[in-house]
Amino acid sequence: MVNQKLLEIIADFNFWQRKQDAGIPREELAEVLKFADDKNFVLIVAGVRRSGKTFLCRQILQEKIKQGILPEQTLYINFEDPALEPYLNTNCLSDFYETYRHNLNKEKFAYIVFDEIQNVPNWEKWIRIMIDKKTKAKFILTGSSSKFYRGKQAEILTGRGLTFFLFPLKFADFLKFKNYSLKKVESSQSISPLLVEYLEFGGFPLIVLEPDQIKKQIYLKELFDDIITKDLIVKRKLRESDIRQLAVALINQFSALVSVRRSQTFLADMNLAKISPMTINSYLGYFASSFLFLFTPIFSYKAKEVIRYPKKLYCVDTGLINSLGVRFSDNIGRLYENIVAKSSWQRYGKDNLFYWKNQTKEVDFVVKQGRNVFQLIQVCFNLKVSKVKERETSALIEASGELECANLLIITENFETQEKIKGKTIKYLPLWKWLLQDRIIREG
């Protein structure tokens, strides 16, 4: 049904009405444009709230206009706009589409962005019908919860969708937002202040661009509250006090092993509420679905062990960790590990990242490539203590033998070298250089 009121509500946010702020293009744009050009599939952009999904989608539309399509061949709708709330029903997608076609683009191909589409009832059925009808449109969908691209609803789009995960800014893009050219990088001293800021306040674009540190902290706390409230409490109808207290308890245990039993211990140690094991297990799944926490399993060729052993927990952004009272200076080593976890998820995908552990030793990250182990990574902020270095290297060497992997790396604060120990070559690399190594090679 054509509804002119709908057009009035969304007009100001579309390129056919006026120029839109598309923000600063980030590294992911080139990659996601490859997906945007495949007109046989829906493009799904998933990620934590405020990670930049909206701006990335605007950049896609802007790029398509630069390539020659008319502004009227694009449509952008944000389903978290309060003005649209009265219209969010099972027919609203048809109403928006028909209104757009009637007024702006009757028959030409269109690039259509539905932002936070999980707020629309039965959206997946409508999208599937439009794909099956071979509609002259490329649909780009975003969401802040894995619920909208996994589970029974998403099964309707099986074989019809390509998912792209968007995280807070990579360090290279953080530097770009700060107007720092990679060509300036000469030593750790020149880039150290920016790395410290990245560790302390994280990579959410809004926070990166905010110059005032007090406001950064306020925005981070508001963002954490939004994730808990909008993505968990409201959508899943959860008990507010329980989910908040467990989230705080877990965020204080970042870069550590977690399980239902350990979570109960965290709550008891912090004098927080008692939550049943079944509820905690459900909540851990909800945290993962909101992209607030990343969970890394143990590496094992036995499926039962992967399920049975605790997972390592990391937060999607170190700024959120520091905003909730964790002392930055006391946790620099754990923050290093958290950054490596998040960045490794971005580079290799969550299904290729594990930790390794036996009775006495542990390796922070096992990176899998296909069926083989590609790399073993330890993260150690300070290697000056000989016992620490011996512990880290011996674990790598033992895991190297068991997993048949010779690509061994220790990520450090500022130590860079390569050495042979017991016939194994171990490379040492500063965190900032590891974060930037791909870009330095391309732009150096």
From TrEMBL:
InterPro entries: AAA_14, DUF4143, P-loop_NTPase. The keyword Transcription regulation does not apply. Residues 242-380 form the DUF4143 domain. Residues 41-175 form the AAA domain. The chain crosses the membrane at residues 283-301. The keyword Membrane applies. It comes from the Bacteria. Gene3D superfamilies: P-loop containing nucleotide triphosphate hydrolases. Keywords: Membrane, Transmembrane, Transmembrane helix. PANTHER family: ARCHAEAL ATPASE, ATPASE. This is ATPase. The lineage of its organism: Bacteria, Candidatus Brenneribacteriota.
